[in-house]
Design a protein that fits this description.
The complex is a heterodimer of chains A (about 375) and B (about 550). Chain A is globular, with a radius of gyration of 20 Å. In chain A, helix 4 (about 225-235) runs parallel beside helix 5 (about 260-265) and helix 6 (about 290-300) packs parallel to helix 7 (about 315-325). Chain A is built from seven helices and 20 strands. The relative contact order of chain A is 0.14. Chain A has about 375 residues and is an alpha/beta fold. By secondary structure, chain B is α/β, with parallel strands linked by helices. Chain B contains 20 helices and 18 strands. Chain B has helices at about 30-55, 60-70, 80-110, 130-135, 135-140, 145, 150-175, 180-195, 200-230, 255-265, 285, 305-310, 350-360, 380-385, 385-395, 415-425, 465-475, 495-505, 525-535, 540-554; strands at about 10, 15, 235-240, 245-250, 270-275, 290-295, 315, 330-335, 345, 370-375, 400-405, 430-435, 445-450, 450, 455-460, 485-490, 515, 535-540. In chain B, the strands form five sheets. In chain B, strands 6-5-4-7-8-9 form a six-stranded parallel beta sheet. Chain B is globular. The N and C termini of chain B lie far apart (about 50 Å). The relative contact order of chain B is 0.11. Classes of the chains: A alpha/beta (about 375), B alpha/beta (about 550). The interface of A and B includes residues 135, 139, 168 and 233 of A.
């Protein structure tokens, strides 16, 4: 057996043993240590860590999950690596991201499925009562869950748009992808009462609760879901942080959840929301452009630099990073989660090592 | 940040105090700095209230706010920086109102209002960054280079003792018990601190005055608890779970526990106490609820594992909160002065969400074999058998009483207290208060005649009960408390314990053994003063300390 030491970003040392036949992720879980992970097949990069000392055999994995440059820097994936000696590893996540119990797998039933705008569906599930977890929907605002169709090889991850609750409700905003397998299921098969399997909650794209800076949310398309979840929680908790939302779609007919944004103001009076349409072909009195362009405009105003919470397609993340850098926002104050089409490989991280809360596993479609 | 108010503060050869980005308790620098600013604005509020009171004018809202605000700054109570910004604004509003009150009262008395110095004229910034920039003006050590470490140490003793007084007085107030002399003492101490005293003697006098005020606060709390819930009775408490939905209530607040019991009545939910709420089971009006099912877990420092394993919601009603872990972060609620950013908070006693959570969470799947412990030996129960106790002492059946009481903690060295209890000879009685008892309260100490050798007198909040028992026994034996066959072995952790220690000193109790370490804010010179005046000693080795206590009493 080899000794493995995982040093978290906040300085905690987690130790477990691994033999040469099991992956580091399997070894950790055997020791009741559950690091963040998603696909478990080397495809998403969620379990990426950096090797400081020792030898590990890296099995095949997607270049999107682990680039050549990252491999050269000593990065490995826990789900695709086996120990060949004692190992010292460093993680980009905090100790609190490491679970001490297996990820919940629960059943839920569809209670609502309804179109929102021309390309989006609002899906509401209700957990079944469970001897281990009860009825409650426990997660952290901003997290996502993986949904699977029983008996079918369809499994997709979506961010939760609502807040933790005792009624067991899970709300998702899902972009319908032409030709997408899960999209096809939702459009053609799914009805109220149908059962789904829910894996999770997962992810670390959550509020930095101890931070004092204003919180600005930049959301592209259904990247609104985690922002909505975090903002709704702020409203529930009467959180006094100044906050802004920059939410954008490509065309006016794609707009959705405007009523939800408006409703937020009741509990979160300090919220300033900017709804953006990139290509408004019809009369549009709101911001014409992308959320990152609206962000750039607002960052020119005087005031303390905000923390940025960004969710959307890779192009939006990249554009927002550029805007933020130009405005002097430190890299470690940008929290992002990107998504990409289901059938394609998950986009690789372009952010530097140490970036917080980068979870590229959320897939739309 | 700089903070050394509790026993676990960082210590090194260079000195003691948490001064990094995070304290040993998990308090971050911004929260620590904002707490300093809040206390500084409260000093200004206290100054005006003190001067107004001298002219016969009082402001109940200002006084009550002082208790609450100070309580939020105790160790392991409130870690929510944003909350402190709100509290500072509220303190400033009340201070301005108190100034107007004072000026009106002065004019009514045909006097020219005094221009008060220091905190009275401090203007807190309107935003977070501005407040953080002001923290230096409010820091306890701001003029250490001028006044010296002894003065800083004594100011700290007064400030931290004051925090304890405020916490006890707040607990009493929420149950409707208030004493004008407590408010007067709080205001007096704040007025003194705001004047930035540079002499030792007035600070020592103030510390003892606070000790006396704390005795009144503890008396008020005792009256509040017994008035609301009856007189504690010896009671067996189940310490293993029973099957069913469950809520865990931790902290010290009996009123919150009562409201939760009311909210869960006939709903099929069992309520468990945790930590310092264990003594609640001894109160007749609380134990009458059949769904007050038992006590779960041990002292506060074990909460992260215990809360994670508990299959229902958790309510933290007062100190001592540790950083909530991911496994239970979504189902822990804070109440009253307690806070942590990102947790659900119950400000107005509406526990309906907690009930919802309990019904939605799984609860205990099955009964665990029943185990019980006995508690409830408050002053009434002990004094009810005083004649037997006195007889047993006179007959030589009871050689000595040890009060092994106070806080528990995570730092090494606290096994001393369990060692002490276990090593205490069979002809001695162990009285205990506070959560330090969790180290030994499941041990079997046997009985002396019909009297259990271990008598649990309650929370740290019940120190009054122990003092009344000591005083009554002294009267019965016709001696002073210091002549009783009684030794006090006190484990301190935070500011309530500091207040109780001041009370003991103010009442003339000598030879208290204190540990596991002495307060970091007491300089060697100040410790010498306490040793000379009050015989305070640090704990040593349990067997040797027992022998020394018995030898002195012989």
């Amino acid at each position: 057996m080899f000794k493995v030491e995982l040093l978290t970003r906040d300085g905690a040392s987690i130790a477990f043993e691994a033999d040469a036949t099991q992956t580091l992720l399997e070894a950790a879980e055997r020791a009741s240590v559950y690091p963040p992970s998603s696909c478990r097949e080397g495809g998403c990069g969620v379990c990426r860590v950096t090797k400081v000392s020792g030898d590990a055999e890296l099995l095949s994995c997607s270049s999107a999950a682990l680039s050549e440059k990252e491999r050269a820097a000593g990065d490995i994936l826990l789900c695709r690596s086996r120990a060949r000696s004692d190992l010292q590893l460093t993680a980009t996540f905090d100790q609190t991201a490491i679970g001490s119990a297996p990820e919940p797998v629960r059943t839920a039933r569809i209670v609502e499925i309804a179109p929102q705008g021309s390309t989006t569906l609002r899906l509401v599930l209700q957990y079944s009562d469970d001897p281990t977890f009860g009825q409650a929907a426990q997660f952290v605002a901003g997290q996502y869950a993986e949904l699977a169709v029983p008996g079918a090889p369809i499994k997709r991850s979506y961010s939760l748009a609502n807040t933790p609750n005792w009624d067991g409700l899970l709300e998702f905003l899902i972009r319908i992808q032409p030709g997408g397998a899960f999209s096809g299921y939702l459009r053609e098969t799914a009805t109220a009462g149908a059962e789904l399997i829910v894996h999770g909650p997962k992810g670390q794209f959550t509020l930095d609760e101890s931070a004092l800076a204003p919180r600005w949310f930049v959301a592209g398309g259904t990247g609104l879901a985690p922002a909505l979840s975090m903002l709704r929680q702020m409203a529930e908790f009467a959180d006094p942080h100044p906050c802004r939302l920059f939410f954008g779609v490509n065309r006016v007919e794609e707009l959705f959840a405007l009523d939800a944004i408006e409703a937020l103001r009741a509990g979160l009076p300090q919220l300033q929301a900017t709804v953006c349409v990139w290509k408004p072909e019809v009369a549009w009195s709101g911001f014409a452009g992308t959320p990152s362009e609206a962000l750039a405009k607002s960052l020119k105003e005087e005031g303390p630099r905000p923390d940025l919470y960004v969710c959307g397609p890779p192009a939006l993340i990249a554009a927002t990073n550029s805007v933020a850098a130009a405005a002097g926002i430190a890299q470690d104050r940008i929290f992002s989660e990107k998504f990409s089409p289901a059938e394609g490989p998950v986009e690789k991280s372009t952010e530097p090592p140490g970036r917080r809360h980068l979870w590229p596993g959320v897939i739309v479609g | 940040m700089f903070c050394y108010q509790c026993e676990q503060t960082f210590r090194s050869d260079e000195g003691a105090g948490c001064a990094g980005t995070k304290g040993m308790c998990g308090k971050d620098a911004a929260t620590a700095d904002l707490q300093d600013v809040l206390l500084h604005v409260c000093e200004g509020l206290g100054q005006y209230l003190h001067h107004a009171r001298a002219l016969g004018a009082t402001d109940a809202e200002g006084d009550r706010f002082l208790l609450f605000a100070f309580f939020t700054t105790l160790t392991n109570v409130n870690f929510n920086a944003a909350r402190f910004v709100q509290l500072i604004a509220e303190a400033a509003r009340l201070r301005d109102r108190a100034r107007a009150l004072y000026e009106r009262a002065a004019r009514a008395a045909a006097k020219i209002p005094e221009n008060l110095p220091g905190a009275a004229v401090f203007v807190p910034a309107s935003d977070m960054n501005g407040l953080l920039a002001q923290a230096g003006e409010a820091a306890i050590r701001k003029d250490a280079a001028i006044v010296g470490e002894d003065v800083i140490g004594l100011r700290s003793l007064v400030l931290y003792g004051l925090k304890g007084v405020c916490a006890y007085a707040h607990h009493a107030r929420v149950l409707g018990e208030e004493r004008p002399e407590i408010y007067a003492a709080v205001e007096h101490a704040l007025d003194l601190l705001a004047r930035e005293p540079k002499d030792i003697e007035p600070l020592l006098e103030e510390a003892l005055a606070l000790g006396r005020a704390n005795f009144v606060a503890m008396e008020a709390l005792d009256a509040a608890n017994t008035g609301a819930f009856g007189t504690p009775q010896p009671t067996q408490v189940r310490v293993t779970p029973v099957k069913g939905k469950a809520i865990l209530v931790s902290g010290h607040d009996l009123k919150d526990l009562h409201e939760i019991l009311e909210a869960t009545k006939d709903k099929g939910i069992n309520v468990y106490t945790h930590g310092e709420l264990l003594p609640a089971h001894a109160y007749p009006k609380l134990k009458a609820y059949p769904h007050l099912a038992g006590n779960y877990g041990g002292a506060w420092q074990d909460q992260q594992k215990e809360f994670a394993d508990f299959p229902g919601p958790i309510v933290m009603t007062s100190n001592c909160l540790i950083e909530p872990q991911a496994r239970y972060r979504g189902r822990i609620f804070t109440a009253g002065p307690v806070g942590w950013a990102g947790l659900r908070h119950i400000a107005e006693g509406d526990f309906s969400q907690v009930v919802q959570a309990a019904l939605a969470l799984p609860g205990f799947p099955e009964d665990v074999e029943e185990k019980t412990i006995t508690i409830g030996f408050g002053r009434t129960a002990v004094l009810g058998v005083a004649d037997k106790v006195i007889e047993a002492v006179k007959a030589g059946q009871i050689r000595h009483f040890f009060l092994v009481g106070g806080c528990d903690g995570a730092a090494p060295g606290r096994n001393y207290y369990s060692d002490f209890a276990d090593e205490a000879p069979d002809d001695t009685v162990i009285l205990t208060i506070g959560c330090g008892k969790y180290r030994f309260n499941k041990h079997d100490f046997g009985t002396i005649g019909e009297l259990p050798r271990l008598l649990d007198m309650g929370q740290c909040n019940d120190a009054y009960s122990a003092l009344v028992v000591a005083t009554k026994l002294a009267e019965a034996f016709g001696v002073g408390v210091n002549e009783l066959p009684l030794s006090l072995i006190v484990s301190w952790f935070e500011q309530k314990a500091a207040a109780v220690l001041l009370t003991l000193l103010a009442l003339g109790v000598r030879n208290v053994r204190l540990g596991p370490t002495l307060p970091a804010f007491l300089t060697p010179a100040l410790v010498n003063v306490l040793v000379e005046k009050f015989g305070i000693q640090p704990i040593g080795e349990a067997k040797a300390d027992i022998a020394a206590a018995l030898a002195r009493a012989a």
